[in-house]
Specification:
about 350 residues, 4-stranded antiparallel sheet, Trypsin Inhibitor V, Chain A, 5 helices, about 20% helix, 4-stranded mixed sheet, alpha+beta, 22 strands, single chain, about 35% strand
Amino acid sequence: MSPIGDFIVRLLPNNQDDPERRYFKTVIFISIGMIAIMVVVSLITFLVTFQGKEQTMVPNIEGMALENAMIELQEKALNATIQLHYTASQAEKGLIIGQLPNPGTMVKADSKVMLKVSKGAIVERLNDYVGWSIVDLEAHLRSLVTVYGPLLQIKKPVMRVFDDAPPGTILQQRPEPGTKLTILTDLNLIISRGPQGQTIAVGEYMEMEFAEALRKVIAGGNNFVFSRRKARSGETPGTVVAQSPAAESEVPMETQIQLVIAEPAEIEEGYVFGIMERTFPDFAVPAELTIESISPLGERSRLYQLRHPGGLLTIPYLQQENTTLVVLVEGEEQLRFVVRKARTTED
């Protein structure tokens, strides 16, 4: 017998082994045999499960009612998962408006098909906003968009009338409270502009350094416009050299104060003087504007914060070249202005 055959004979239980050794070998080989059988059975089961499922085509069920779509999928041995969505039409409620995988895709039986089902149009009733501040209403409408999508928008321009109520208070609304909302609806408002005849005393800005004048006019809550020109004889460069109305004048609250700056004569190398201008739509009530600067190195800082009625915004500046001025309206960025030296014909 060959060495291999002799080794196999000695490995297997045989009559030459003592009873205890033969019993041990028998138990070992029976255990190995059972494990091998279990592995083979598991492998066969896996292969049958993995490869045995039939291929089926995903049917086109868009536009079907949910119950009919479920039956169609069951007939194809497919399962459904459901997502609910609001749509523009109440008539679409309960209908399939989308599916994944797409119709015609070949998949294995028992696969899942995701169904987008319409919940119909949103049906909300219009609140009574009379007495609200329009600023609060705008914030409320933004929160509705995140939950339901756009349902209600304030129609512009808003009518403003003199009234004893604080400025920005809603006096009337159309449609009436309780109106059903199923599509995007315009909300017509009449708001208070405050009592008629309110006046303010104009401050003194003459010969004031332009940055100080800007801070003062903002602190006074006045509407303002800056302009610039070359300094004339007797005028100090970089200061306010003309204003209208004159200091200490009593004027209506909405009066625009016009200030003229004599351009600075000596400007540090790498810095630029100018006036940033931007025209905004008229706001229903003065909006909160924040002016920030971003240096060429990326450092960001707040320069000014003010209330502005809309229309022309003018902000004089003396900033390092390539600084970016940022204007935010009610916290949302609306403008980026890069400070650059004006080009001349010699450049």
